[in-house]
Amino acid sequence: MTHWGPELREGGDVRFRLWAPDRQAVALEIDGRPSVDMVRDAEGWFSVSAPAPPGTRYRFRLDGDLAVPDPASRLQSGGVHGWSVIVDPSFAWSATEWSGRPWEEMVLMEVHVGTLGGFAGVRERLTAIAAMGITAIELMPVNAFGGTRNWGYDGVLPYAVAEAYGSPAELRTLVDTAHSLGLSVFLDVVYNHFGPDGNYLNAYASAFFHKDVDTPWGGAVAVDADPVHRFFVDNALMWLRDYRIDGLRFDAVHAIDNDGFLDRMAHEIRAALPNRHVHLVLENEKNDAERLVAGRFDAQWNDDFHNVLHVLLTGETSAYYRDFADRPTERLARCLKEGFIYQGEGSPNHDGKPRGKPSGMLPATAFVAFLQNHDQVGNRAMGERLIQLTDPNRLRAATALLLLGPQIPLLFMGEDEGSESPFLFFTDFHDKLADAVREGRRREFAGFDAFADERARARIPDPNARATFDASVPSPGPQAGEWRAFYRELLALRRVHIMPRLKGAVGLAGEVMANRAVKARWRMADGACLTMLIDLGDAPPPLPDEEGNLLYREGDRFAAWLTP
Cβ(263)–Cβ(291) under 8 Å? Predict the structure, then answer.
């Protein structure tokens, strides 16, 4: 089995490798030294050993012509078109006893490293995050991308940390500090495509892609090919081993469209790290419940939860919200009881094609629920947060449902401070690519009523403008203190009353009580019954009392009870 990337050996030598089946000759170039020819094997792997202490800059020269970075580079010097750098893998970890937290204890906060000041900036916020009652941070992708500003999903060197965020040692320090505070660290990884700036794989390994399988980013990634499978599995293991990341969220796996690859990857990861709490989470538009059984993946991001509540909170029904425009109250009831709303029904947003599989047999913890995340805020044309789209009483009720419900809750940075800062789509591309991204971004919103007019779409911020990034840096809202206290109270209740009862919790009932009012019940691990009522109507009557001990009440809009 051949692995990607530099292999550091005793004595200071490094074994360099590159899979370049389309090329006849590859040379290793080390900055300041003569180039060295690499040896090709029958499968198209080129390799050579050379002395290369940490800090050594290197690249590959293809057929005496094109110079490319190592696709498994751990660090770049001069951006994604520049030199790759040998990284010292050693680190003096302080949280040596840390083995992770059980999945049922997760309360996730998603953060964008760049807008928070890099790895060092995130680290400075960890104490406050832990004090809030958050138990895990989820980093949007930190892999190297073109330019200095990006969400991270345009990465082209999945093994390398983005230079703009800091060094590998700074990321390890961030993770170590989080662990010392009792915080798990999750990372978003992108295995369904590469970004448009700095991906050289097609220049020497065209078999890395299926050119006849079209995706929004070009040919599909050929994860069925052994070298490609190894590239991504080794990448996942690198983050989990070398950086002690506790969990991975796999972006948009429906675009990979290969369940066998997903299952093999999950099996390899779990077999490699049997003594740690390692959590694997999917984003999967297909609502494929089969991936969430038999120890494969812990959970899936439940967009259905967000989408139906967004319709009920805001009244918006354009574009993908069409799927939830009719009978939203009934759909919310199903979501609370069974997890997915779409379990094989036709989806208007997918031209009536069926979406999803039955999910009622899964535990509630198989779903990650959220009211906001980078997609749902940032993929709005103007990046508005939910606090600007609905009234605070409804928002507090929905937040109580999120934080006290048995699905695993995820917050988006700033949410707990009532932030009104937008989170916009931003990049740092140039010339024709910048023009294409700007105009493509504006075309995306033609299906939304508010941007059907071309003049309205022209107001959408330019992703490449520095001001777009600067506006996305979160700042506390005007009622930040009240929101912080609200979140702390709910998370304290979750820690004491919900978390210990979560393992294996299942939905018992989801009932429509009135227009935009739902009652749901779950059987918890210890046999207790959790009951919740939520009313998002215009003039809700007083909530009826239920059996059990009142856990929390939010006016006439939300209440929760626990019955032993």
Answer: yes
CA dist., res. 70 & res. 375, Å (int): 30
- Of 70, 105, 246, 251, catalytic: 251
pTM of the entire predicted model: 0.97
d(CA 468, CA 52): 40
To the query of whether residue 251 is one of the catalytic residues in this protein, the response is yes
Confidence label for 452 from pLDDT (cuts 50, 70 and 90):
confident
Would you tell me how many other CB atoms lie within 10 Å of the CB of residue 308? 25
CA distance 67 to 48: 17
Distance, CA of 446 to CA of 78 (rounded, Å): 38
pLDDT tens digits, 1-53: 789 999 999 888 999 999 999 999 999 999 999 999 999 999 999 999 999 99
The helix (H) or strand (E) run that includes residue 512 is strand 506-514
157: left (phi over 0), alpha (psi -120 to 50) or beta: beta
HSE toward the beta carbon, residue 384, CA cutoff 13 A:
10
Cα torsion for 42, 48, 54, 55, to the nearest 10°?
A: -90
Count of CB atoms within 10 A of residue 478's CB?
Answer: 10
Q: Which residue(s) pair with 71 in the sheet?
A: none
d(CA 479, CA 275): 43
Cα→Cα distances 281→179, 187, 190, 368, 547, Å: 20, 10, 12, 8, 35
User: Catalytic residue among 234, 283, 415, 417, which?
Assistant: 283
Q: Is 283 tagged catalytic?
A: yes
Q: Return the structure tokens found at 158.
A: 């999945």
DSSP string, 200-212: -GGGT-GGGEEEE
Cβ neighbours for 465, distance < 8 A, ≥ 6 positions apart = none
In angstroms, the CA 117 to CA 142 distance is 13
Helix (H, G, I), strand (E, B) or coil at 217: coil
Report the C-alpha gap between 137 and 410 in whole angstroms: 9
